[in-house]
Amino acid sequence: MAKNVSAAPAPRAGVATALERALGLLLIAVVAINIVNATGRYLLSYAFTGADEVMVFVMIYVVMGGAVLSLAQRKHININLLPSYARGRARHALYAIHDLVALGASLFAVYASWLFVARIARLGTTSMTLGIPMIIPHAAILLGFGAMAVVALFVLVRDIRALVADDPTIEEATAQAEMAG
Amino acid sequence: QATMKLASATINDVQHEWQKVFAAELEKRIGDKVKTEIYPASQLGPIPRMAEGVLLGTIEAFTTPTSFMTNVDPRFQAFDVPGLFKSPQDIHNAVHDPEYRAYMETMFLDKGLRVIGALYNSPTVVFTMKPVTKLEEMKGLKIRTFASPMQVKPMELLGAAPLPLALTEVIPALQNGGLDGLLVGMPILTSFKYYDIGKNITDLRFAEIVSVTVVNEDWYQSQPEDVQKAISEAGRAAEEAVYPWGIANVEKTYKVWTDNGGVVNQLSAEEQAKMEKDFADLSATLVAADPSVKVEYDKLKALVDAKAAK
Amino acid sequence: MIGTLAILPIGLLFLGTPVFLVFLAAAALTLFFVLPMPSVAMHQVLFGGLDNYALLAVPFFIFAGELMGTSGIAARLINWVLALTGRIPGSLGVATVGASAVIGAISGASVAAVAALGKTLYPKLESSGYGKERSAGLLASAGAIDIVIPPSIAMILYGLAAEQSIPRLFVAGVLPGLLMALLMALFIVGVAIWLKLPKADRFDPALAWTTTKDAVWALLMPVMVLGGIYNGWFSPTEAGGFACLYAMIVARYVYHSMTWSQIVRAAANSAMLSAQILIIVATAGLVTWLLTTQGVPQAIVGWMQSLDMNAFTFLLVVNIVLLVIGCFLDPTSAILVLAPLLVPIAVAVGVDPIHFGIVMTVNLAIGMFTPPFGLNIFVAQSVTGLPAHALYRGVLPFVVVQLIALMIITYVPALSLMFGETF
Ligand code: NA
Ligand code: NA
């Protein structure tokens, strides 16, 4: 995959790095829970019941958060045959298509997820072990796709402007990033 | 033509059998007005997702042990209280009592679920890597249970360490000693050939598993009246037809178990009585924890005892 | 439905749309325009795809791999292997296959193995003259061995869906897994000889000693992780977490090669890559779910049944069908859906169900790296930065090698069944 960084100005890249580090800290927390749980079980025959649930629910947030950040930075895994050969306006047009798909699909996912989350909130179901309200893990999907829709709209506008202007600075920035990646 | 997806987590067991008979009974009544599709073996997702699916209407019907529905509605716990049902007949008597049956079918309507089937599944036994013939030997064993207090608390009472492990982790954990045993329905042990891992079960017989089939009430209400009636009737008819099949199936699994070198351990009569008494006390505290469960449990208990007395 | 679930996705994939968006869009259009199915199904199935304990192995092993790469643990292990085996042509390539088999014995997370080994071994393979495409192809395909060598999540799911003994499946997977590794190793040695890759001209005991000393802590890592699993200290999934802990301690306090800030940075990279992989797993599950509820796998199996085959042709047809399916679906959902449908036919034509489970598992393992869709390809793409078509070229020779292994495994049932008598 091409490690394209968007031509984002420095402050925006700083925010992305901070958010990525937050996801990293969550992953370390999950590793820590895993170790405490397994050690407690083996050495003390004491199971911290519900550790599984906490780890999985946190990871769902990490996945959705990471997916949002990857969308913003064009880091998602794709079959990059065509984009790697496309130059100039053709590449901007391809990017605009990707953004459009992202926007449409995310909006539908938000709609489907909203229907689900609203009902699960009314029904008040809880998790099997810890009795955590299931709206908490489920909301990760709604929030994640909500954020993806916002990000998609933002990059769509940016890429369409680049397409119209045929802006060579954006072209250069992406090409350089690709060389580096 | 409406489609009715019937999902369950297991295959070729009494739940699957009920779904097949139900489909045939339904067709007998209304022909092809409803097309039934049976998805066994978690083909439509793991148990919590199937439970949510029937709540939300992505799956029309879900057949499952009651213990997997307690997070949808705690009142399902009432069926799992240790010592409530002492035999398959107790279950059969209760769910076919006309008055209780009518009540049970509609008791979860506030959650958008209608019960269309309730049947005896199997006894719960303890599978262990080392033989357990005395309660003392349960102490310190790591036993896989469901996350339900109805399984966790009895194991804690015996001094074992209950672990609600993911199903995919169970067999590797048994093989490497990370787990010493599991609480499990008897047919599961033979269908997954647990005799290749260990040879011992202890037949505590402290609970009989009840399976229910719930349908999404919105979907049910969207059907014409004759279809609704046929679904309810087919559910009851399937239960009657499958009940002897289920009992024979459980007997067969005990035989398969011993034919493959498995051993069925029993507690001494004295210890069995002591355990049952301790569990009875525990049950009282467990049901008291949730007034809505207690109401349902008391109602069931009175019914079971009255029928057993006859 | 063919339009929304096949033609449109292939078009979007070709245009370079992110893979998860292709699946998501296909499912959205199908739910919106084609099927009388509540839209909430999308959320429910996506969530179900992620709410899966076994998937924790993916971030764990990716993080462990990232730590090993950044801290120098991996480099010391590579130097040690090369010091001991440098005279054998293709030793680094063989070491890659061997490392994959070891990770296979720890876990069944194929993508995590590709990510972990990719980060640590790809630069070295490339600089040793194996070529970018071939190195990436080797990494993507070696990961598939993990699914066949026990413990294997695919086999556990087969056991559950087809009601077969999981311990027997595990035992049956050992030789086929080793055969796959052996054929790949032979192929790599052949390539190294053909390319005349440089090798050490003599065994240097002094070098062997210093690299061994250097690698002691690194060598203890697989020992600890494997030992922990086989002593029952932790489960295969949990082992990933312990691998992270071990690597963190060695990196921070033994080698002093990473600061806490760098460790958090490594965790952040791992979280991002895990997210990019797992969002594909979840959305692929969504498409599989739609196909299943529309009866597509059932129709394929029905067609196979109508052919009225003997065991030999049945296995051949199964292999072809599964390889095609494996080009598009992920192995775990394919097994859950297809095993209950196919096993009765297999038994009817006289194929042993344990052997059949191994055939299915090997098939779907190969599907992980057959173009166009294969998680291992995507991960190798992401780790190496190579474009997709380079990866496709890179994996092709290994697809051929593993297909030969598959044919042997399919038509020599004894390979899978000879140790089954231990029960
Ligand atoms: Na494995
Ligand atoms: Na593939």
Automatic annotation (TrEMBL), chain A:
One GO CC annotation: plasma membrane
Protein name in the entry: TRAP transporter small permease protein
Membrane topology note: Multi-pass membrane protein
Membrane-spanning residues: 54-72, 93-115, 135-157
Signal peptide: none
GO BP, one annotated term: C4-dicarboxylate transport
Family matches, as Pfam families: DctQ (PF04290)
Species annotation: Pseudaminobacter soli
Domain of life: Bacteria
Entry's localization field: Cell inner membrane
Any one GO molecular-function label of the UniProt entry: transmembrane transporter activity
UniProt keyword list: Cell inner membrane, Cell membrane, Membrane, Transmembrane, Transmembrane helix, Transport
Role, per record: Part of the tripartite ATP-independent periplasmic (TRAP) transport system.
UniProtKB/TrEMBL annotation, chain C:
Keyword Transmembrane helix recorded: yes
TRAP C4-dicarboxylate transport system permease DctM subunit domain segment(s): 10-415
Database matches in InterPro entries: DctM, TRAP_DctM
Short name of any one Pfam family annotated for the protein: DctM
Transmembrane segments: 6-35, 55-78, 90-117, 138-158, 170-195, 215-233, 239-255, 267-291, 311-329, 334-351, 357-379, 391-414
Coiled-coil residue spans: none
Keywords linked to the UniProt accession: Cell inner membrane, Cell membrane, Membrane, Transmembrane, Transmembrane helix, Transport
Subcellular localization, as worded in the UniProt entry: Cell inner membrane
One Gene Ontology cellular component annotation held by this UniProt entry: plasma membrane
Family indicated by similarity: Belongs to the TRAP transporter large permease family.
NCBIfam families noted in UniProt: dctM
Official protein name in the record: TRAP transporter large permease protein
Source organism: Pseudaminobacter soli (ex Zhang et al. 2022)
